[in-house]
Design goal:
Blueprint lengths: L1 H16 L35 H6 L8 E6 L3 H7 L4 H18 L5 E10 L7 H25 L1 E6 L7 H13 L6 E9 L1 H10 L9 H13 L42 E4 L18 E4 L9 H13 L9 H6 L4
Parallel strand pairs: 1-2, 1-5, 2-4, 3-4, 5-6
Helix pairs in contact: 3-4, 4-5, 5-6, 7-8
Amino acid sequence: MAKSFERHNVRATRALSRLTVRPGPRCGSAPPSCGKPPAFPPMLPLHPKVVAPHEAAMAGGDINPLIHAAIIMDGSGRWAAERGLPRSAGHREGVAAVRRSVQAAPGLGIGTLTLHAFSSDNWQRPGGEVRELMRIFEEFLRSSVAEWAGAGIRTSVLGRRDRLPPSLGAAIEAAESATLHGSRLHLRLAIDYSAREAILCAARSLANTQAATPAEFGRLLAAVERHPAPVGSDLVYNPGRGLAPAQTAPRGGPAFDLGHYPPVAELDLLIRTGGEQRLSDFMLWECAYAELVFTDRMWPDFDAADLEAAVREFRSRHRRFGRVPESVHAAGIDD
């Protein structure tokens, strides 16, 4: 199994590495933003059909349901260092890579795209870099929301919000509200996010109660990931009513009701750029059966062709979820 896993990773890395690097224009360290976002080309309406990944994997025929893809956007700082630029220039250039990926995703059959922007561990970085990242996030959200709303892209942000600058928190809430009814793509940004912290919070809320079903736990985890309050501060599992606590969110937000949260979406494809091969506390619950693709491409250089190559690699793999193909089962072949 380990050898098979290694072969998959090497094959995907080689496939992505063969693509020609096409770096975008350098933003430098002076301008406050990377310019006006590119207009989205017309896209055919996508109406996601709910297909359980286990069923899709075992079904016959050319069934290609919309997938949930995630990207650990790594390598921006190293990209800048290789060019003698400050790390902030790499982060700003990475914004262009985000726009390229968001623009290309619907046409590649991606219904949900989750981007790992800032982990809870990233607070340990130098204060100047953290403050610059917070400014970049806010600028990106405010400059993109009208485009997303017009293109049918729904946006939501995962992670804690109590530690974010108030202006960024306001930008997040405005973007989520303005794009709430988008149906072509669900873009999720993970900011101040820790998968272990979210799982711990969800598990802690179930203490001393009858065990919840995986679906209920997934719904609770989805709510935890989206809840603006400090993780673990106010969630209670009620065995009589199920997972349905409610509490007013900070800054006058809406009532917190787990009934409004579907179970957390399983991840189909996880891509990591920058040459590293680890999960870095990202979507650990959702990654249970995700296909992993690693590439040496630094995030600022990542483009639509790279995303297409990763999706093509994903489509080439046989996802069995612990089962065996029907042909093997029918033939009575034992493992």
